[in-house]
Every structure is written in structure tokens, then in C-alpha cells.
What we know:
The longest helix has 16 residues, at 72-87. It is elongated, with a radius of gyration of 23 Å. By secondary structure, it is α/β, with parallel strands linked by helices. Helix 5 crosses helix 12 and helix 8 (158-171) packs parallel to helix 9 (187-202). The protein has helices spanning 5-12, 16-23, 30-43, 49-53, 72-87, 101-113, 128-137, 158-171, 187-202, 218-230, 243-255, 289-304, and strands spanning 58-66, 91-96, 116-122, 141-144, 152-156, 176-181, 208-213, 237-240, 265-270, 283-286, 312-315, 318-320. The protein starts with a helix and ends in an 8-residue tail after the last strand. Strands 2-1-3-4-5-11 form a six-stranded parallel beta sheet, sandwiched between helices. Helix 5 links the parallel strand 1 (58-66) and strand 2 (91-96). Residues 49-57 have low confidence and may be disordered.
Amino acid sequence: MSKTISDIAMIAGVAKSTVSRYLNGGSVSAATRNKIEQVIKETGYVPNTFAQSLKAKTANIIGTIVPRLDSFATSHTLMGIDDQLRKQGCRMLITNTSQDMNREIEAIYELARQKISGIILLAARITDEHLEAIESSNIPVLLVGQQHEHIHSLIHNDYEAGYQLGRYVLHQGHRRIAYLGVTEQDIAVGVKRKQGFASAVAEIDGCQVQYYETSFRMSDARQDALELLKQGLDASIIVCATDNIALGVMKAAYEHGVAVPEQLSVTGFGGYDVTEVVHPALTTIRYPYQEAGKIAAQDIVRLVHRQHVQMVTVMDYELLERESVDKC
């Protein structure tokens, strides 16, 4: 069986990112370089042949690194990127990391070795290891969905969206509120949306808000919501950090015999297509994922050609008032 970067790293006793940096011509100490070279020689490891076959950067190939493919937001962003790149005579190369941050960092080095001209990175957070990989790659990188002061970023206005949804919920009369969010490691979804919502709630006296956490998976949200309902959740509404979570909550409410919205209102974030056809239709924030993908593609091509791109591009959003929220 052919060896991988992970195998080489394990045998040499170094990190995968160190092996990637070595193969990409990055800075590695002499001792570490010797260890890696010895392991490569002994194992007969051969780097990616596609990377070796390219003699120079190819201006029409853009790498896209995504955390998962089974996501409405990701798939629609990719559709926008692909559509716009094709119009500009470019091609897209997709790398899926399955929400593994180490694979995400390794993918930056891997794409750089394949001599693509730019990278569009959809990441939950940016660490020092990300920054090191981006600096080492020496190619333009555009961050989508999150913001970092040192990287060109395209973001959705999560804070303001959370604030507007909070104002809407309060306007409907809800004062006993449960907020079902996700890990704060995801700054946009886990922090900004919740902060915006909390700011709106803080403007009104007499609100009781309970904050809970689940995963991005609908099945996990369903299970967590069931537990909350069985424990006698004292809330007239559950505000969910994503549409997937909201759909899981609605399923749990149905299974527990709780009518939506008559007994429990539910909201989400995202504007997924399915939220319009479920019953009751979900009140949510719609983000223009496909349009964001098109703008991201335009911006990365500009960066490749050393044209000006503003450091932060902020997308708009839309509040969709539907059937899943009753007045309280």
C-alpha cells in the first residue's frame, strides 16, 4: 500500500504539517529535513503526481477547501463559485476536509504543491497553523464565512442578522426564550449570531433566555431538543442557530406531541430551500450563499491578477416571516 503524508510524519516523528511544509519547499530545520528525507528514501514515498506534472502556476485553476459537502450553505456557495469561475475561464478544484482542522491545514499545503493560483477557504476558525500554511503557500487566499484581519474575507452579516431576528421574536411577544446554538469555535455561527440575538434581548426588560448547545447535525439537534422537552423546557420559542437545527427541533416537537407554532414557536438561520415546503414553513434568516460564491470567485481572480480587493466584504441577509412563529 502506498504511503501517505500521515505515514511519513508518523515514521519520522514529526507533524503532518511539517512534512507538507518540507514537500512544499518551506522552512524546516536541517535535522528534521534529514529525518524526513531518510523516511522518504526508505519508504519510496512519491508526492502527488499531479503537482509534479505542473511546471508553473496555472492561472485558471482555483482551489476550494470546504469543511463538508453535505451542507446546503456549502453546496450553494460552491455552485456560485463554479458558475462564476467558468464565466471567467477558470476551473475549480475542491478539497473536502470532513470538518478535520488538520486536514484543512494540510490541504492548503497540498493545493500549493499542485501550483494552483489561488485558494478559497471555507473554515470554521483560523488558527496560527492556518496562518503559517497560508504564508508558506505564497498564493492568494480568500476566506469565506469567517473574518480574519490578515486575510481577505467575505462574510455574512451574522451579528446584525441575529440582532434583527431577536427584535422580531421580541416583537411577537416572546419573553421565555431558548436559544439552541453550536460550538463557539465557529465564530460566525457559534458566536456572532448569538451575540447579535443577545444584544436585542438585552434591550427589553423581563426576558428569560436559556442558552443551549448542540451540533450542526439535524439528528443531534432532534435528540437534544427531545431531552429538553422531556425535562419540561420553560420556553415559548426556540431560536436555532441554523435551519438544520430548527428542523431537528420541529421533528422533536412533533414526536413529543408539542404543536408548532401553537405551543412552541421555532426559528432558524440559513434560508434553506426545504424550510419553505415543510409544515409549518420555517421563519428564518436567508443568506445569499450562491451570490456569495459568485463574489468570492470574482475576488479570488482579482487577487490572482494582483488587482485591488477590499479586506472584508459583507453580504446582506433577509428575514423570512413564515408560519413557525406565533404571537405570544
